[in-house]
Write a structure and sequence with these properties.
- The protein is built from 2 helices and 6 strands, in the order E-E-E-E-E-H-E-H.
- The protein has 130 residues and is an alpha+beta fold.
- Strands 1, 2, 3, 4, 5 and 6 form a 6-stranded mixed sheet that branches.
Length: 130
């Protein structure tokens, strides 16, 4: 697994959307990986007394010879969902952040949320004159 972010997006927490790539290969920081969207884990995050939505988007590397259909979140096995949840719980352990899971979105709902975060990013860029 590799954790990272989705460029040119802006989430409710004021940062780019968080992403997780599920694969067995090693990669390095800064590597861009072409991926297919699997699902999104709905997360409420509390930090410094403020609670915001901070979903985590789950991907797998895109394969050239794979079917053109996108994978659906229902294809993420329960065991893998549990491992992903444990990964994100561990990622905030020892910090002042607390997270609470509110379930999963399938790939189509997750994609709608990503598009909304892209529009938010674009509006902020225009407002800043960039």
């Amino acid at each position: 697994m590799d954790a990272g972010f989705l460029p040119s997006t802006l989430g409710d927490d004021g940062d780019a959307l968080d992403g997780l790539v599920i694969h067995e290969a090693a990669s390095a920081p800064g590597v861009v990986i072409k991926c297919d969207l699997l699902a999104a884990l709905r997360v409420m995050q509390t930090e410094n007394g403020e609670t915001v939505r901070n979903d985590r988007y789950v991907f797998c590397p895109h394969k050239q010879d794979a079917h053109s259909e996108s994978l659906l979140g229902e294809n993420v096995p329960d065991r893998l969902r549990s491992e992903i949840e444990q990964f994100f719980l561990a990622s905030v352990s020892g910090t002042d952040k607390q997270i609470e899971f509110e379930g999963w979105h399938d790939s189509s709902q997750a994609l709608r949320n990503i598009h909304r975060a892209m529009r938010t990013f674009e509006r902020k860029q225009r407002a800043a004159g960039l």
